[in-house]
Amino acid sequence: MNDTDQIQAAVAAPSGPEAAPSVTQTRARFARRVAAGVGSAALLLAMATDALAVAGRHLGVTFLGAIEIFEACIVVAATSAIVIATIDGTHARVRILLEQVGERAAGVLDRAADLVSAIIFVVLIAGSIWLASDLWNGHEVTEVLNLPMRWMRAFWIGGALLVATIFIGNAMRRRA
């Protein structure tokens, strides 16, 4: 059973003294619930904002800044979705090669895939931090509502850090 199967089993496992989850499983379940709650709230707010904007257009009332609110919500929802996909191990992976090699080689390739994924997220984090540090005191805001962009970037960086950490943890726990 690989780490993805263990996390999925932990999320679906019954509670009780006979099936006490490990600390890692409890943390994964908690992180998944938090990410799902935050992402769901962001999607609901985005949907409500867009619905009000459309209704307003039909009634001749302009809802200024609806697109800006929608965009901010999508940053939160997309980051939450990436975190959930990483926790659940449901990122898209091509398994054609893994099916053709032995179990040991498949384990090595899975570990390598986790490490490469972590590296990709570290590069994205580095670029995001660089961009955020250059613009942090620039008071970069949206055009209509003056929503500060720095907090959207900070949320993305935090989510990407969590994803990179999960990938590194998965790579360390996998058997080669």
UniProtKB/TrEMBL annotation:
Where's the Tripartite ATP-independent periplasmic transporters DctQ component domain? Answer: 52-174
Q: Pfam families, per this entry? A: DctQ
Keywords, A to Z, come to: Cell inner membrane, Cell membrane, Membrane, Transmembrane, Transmembrane helix, Transport
Q: Which InterPro entries match?
A: DctQ
Lineage: superkingdom: Bacteria
One cellular component term (GO) for this entry is: plasma membrane
Compartment(s) of residence:
Cell inner membrane; Cell membrane
Transmembrane residue ranges:
34-55, 61-87, 108-131, 151-172
**Membrane topology, from the record:** Multi-pass membrane protein
MF-aspect GO terms = transmembrane transporter activity
Role noted for this protein: Part of the tripartite ATP-independent periplasmic (TRAP) transport system.
| Assembly and binders | The complex comprises the extracytoplasmic solute receptor protein and the two transmembrane proteins.
Q: Which family does it belong to?
A: Belongs to the TRAP transporter small permease family.
Q: What is this protein called?
A: TRAP transporter small permease protein
